[in-house]
Design brief:
This protein starts with 53 loop residues before the first helix and ends with a helix. The chain has a two-stranded antiparallel sheet. By secondary structure, it is mostly helical. It has two domains: 90 residues, Orthogonal Bundle (Arc Repressor Mutant, subunit A), CATH 1.10.10; 164 residues, GntR ligand-binding domain-like (Four Helix Bundle (Hemerythrin (Met), subunit A)). The protein has eleven helices and two strands. Helix 2 crosses helix 3 and helix 5 packs across helix 9. It is 59% helix and 1% strand.
């Protein structure tokens, strides 16, 4: 994308590489630690202030532009020489800032390209991976994940049924039909099932809860894969059973019966998790990835 997608200058740096001060306080305007004044009327010193490093300042400024939508997914940052001149920083400082944004999956470098790095929007999947790493590190158990999902998903489904939104119902119906078509296709049903399952939460209109559910499901998907691999002979029967449950849920959502939809989904998720966790009592999330 052209230069119209480039970032605006955010300020210049001093020749020694330090950022210009945002503002300084007058000696007589500083607060005392204990609120009392010295006999001569001057304020007591409050100690030194640790300023952020310049690469951190640059990364923060570019991050704000991405998250605010000023820089959109697919936009190109200016080339390194141009961008460092715009920002008034050295190229090593800019490179360090860009490495931070790359680690956060907010930009994607273009190696050997005549364009700068590509802006990439934050995704739930990337956030879910980090949450998955944290759960592994903390030794979280699979039972803990299952209990948490059981607390989140049924209320979302109840909220979905309460919306009675024709556009929402059309999306859920389409996902259900795709799932039905995938029953006889090995390898295609599980993605279709997962899509319906997540869509039932996403469409409830409560984005924060839906994101949490997606993060949990990213981890539990690994458990589902192992369970399916261990029961190949029953795969068609299990797919048919899961689809019937989803069809029942859709009927309840379509009727607008929020309480019944929530209760049914609670029972369904509890049954599914019971099957998935059978024989895995005490097993931790990290065990799935080792």
């Amino acid at each position: 994308m052209g230069s119209d997608a480039t970032a605006q200058p955010i300020g210049t740096a001093q020749p020694n590489g330090t950022a210009q001060p945002i503002g300084t306080a007058q000696p007589n305007g500083t607060a005392q630690p204990n609120g009392t004044a010295q006999p001569n009327g001057t304020a007591q010193p409050i100690g030194s202030v640790r300023l952020p490093k310049l690469p951190t300042v640059v990364a923060d400024a570019l991050r704000r532009r991405i998250l605010s939508g000023t820089l959109r997914q697919g936009d190109s940052l200016p080339l390194e020489q141009e961008l460092s001149a715009q920002l008034g920083v050295s190229r090593p400082t800019l490179r360090e800032a860009l490495r931070v944004l790359e680690a956060e999956s907010l930009i994607r470098p273009r190696r050997g390209s005549r364009e700068g790095a590509e802006v990439t929007a934050p995704t739930v999947d990337s956030a879910a991976r980090y949450v998955g790493y944290l759960l592994q590190y903390q030794g979280t158990t699979l039972e803990d994940l299952a209990r948490t999902r059981l607390m989140l998903e049924p209320p979302l489904v109840g909220q979905l049924a309460a919306t009675r939104d024709p556009a929402v119902l059309a999306q859920l119906r389409d996902a259900l039909e795709q799932e039905e078509a995938a029953i006889a296709a090995p390898g295609e049903f599980q993605p279709a099932r997962a899509r319906f399952h997540q869509l039932a939460c996403d469409l409830a209109g409560l984005e924060t809860m839906a994101i949490f559910v997606r993060q949990l499901n990213w981890v539990l998907a690994r458990l589902t894969e192992e369970h399916r691999a261990a029961s190949r002979r029953d795969r068609r029967r299990q797919a048919t059973k899961a689809h019937r449950a989803h069809a029942r849920l859709f009927a309840l959502v379509e009727s607008g019966d929020s309480a019944a939809a929530q209760q049914f989904w609670h029972e369904h998720v509890a049954e599914v998790d019971k099957q998935l966790l059978s024989g895995r009592e005490g097993q931790r999330v990290v065990d799935l990835f080792s």
